[in-house]
Design a protein that fits this description.
Number of domains: 2
CATH class of the largest domain: Alpha Beta
CATH topology of the largest domain: Rossmann fold
Distance between the termini: 19 Å
Number of strands: 17
Helix content: 25-40%
Number of helices: 12
Structural class: alpha/beta
Strand order of the largest sheet: 1-2-3-4-5-7-6
Radius of gyration: 22 Å
Length: 373
Amino acid sequence: MKIIDLTPDYDLALAELIRNNLKKYKLDIPGTVYFDDNLNHLSDFYLAEPEKRHYFLMTDDDNKLVGGIGLAEVSFFDECCELQKLYLSDEVKGLGHSYTLMSLVDNKAKELGYKRIYLETHDNLAAAIHLYEKCGFLEIEKPEYVVHSTMNRFFMKDLLDYSGYWEKCWHEENPEELYRYLECWNRHSDTEMEVFAQHGIKSICDAACGFGAHTLALASNGFEVSAFDISEKAVELTRSGLKKYGYDDIEVKIASITSTGYDDDSFDAVTAYSVMDHLTQADAKTALKELMRIIKPGGLLLLSFDTAEEEDFLCEHDTLSDGSMVYTDNSSRSGMLYLPYDSDRIQQLIDRYDLLKQWTNKKGNQLVILQKK
């Protein structure tokens, strides 16, 4: 599948896709998108103010439209956009494409500066409501103003800017101290290295690489490594640190773990050390799906989770609905999100995937290796 931006050439096909979906769920009635005046010319709306609106199309390899999703500013909530017109054709439903489209809107909303995403839906769309809840949306009371009068269910999701905290964090670090610490990771080998070798792993992507400790460990053990981090400063530190050990040809780029930008089936394995516990539960699920997407069939995904300590709970914080803590004190943690994982929460996260190995390392951190079917 390909993701492209809406153009006028797809206007009529998109209108047909939307109407067909609404008819199927008996929502081809007044007060729904079905009767919007601009439905046949949606590109006029979305292209008019690209700083406030956007619409993504999903097409197959023959450029046939199979889905779409959009967002646009809403006037009755501050710093908020509305998730709009998420539809898929019947032949691609149930394959996980909705999660891909939802992730696109999340990232675009953040890019455009929105702090929240609002949506309206209807009881008839039970599968969609299940999707929204899985993606971190919480149901709210009906607002005073609504976009479509027939809609009877309303949801809101807060958007978190992960990059802000981590950019600040890495700028506060002393690079020379970090580079000295890297030495202990050069040729460092652990249980996961043995598992990778046993399964013939060659290419590995180090997700959310930080300053590159695990990137160096993987490279110095002979693996072909790529890496990314959401923080520009972290990427800079990783590149500089790797260069000191002669690995100046490793690709290290800026990317989000929920939208990496790599092609499908790019790597034999992916590692994500101590990153899932710094995402909301909904974003962790999105990230897990994204990391699986870029792994080749039969490939491996390593996840590690830090063990929570008493101090983690004592520091001042706000608690989100999923149990995530966002620290609010004046310490170096301020702005960091942390979601403690015990064995039950890990199981909930990985339940849909094939577990190859699970263990606790010497530091007390929990690790799992999943295998892609």
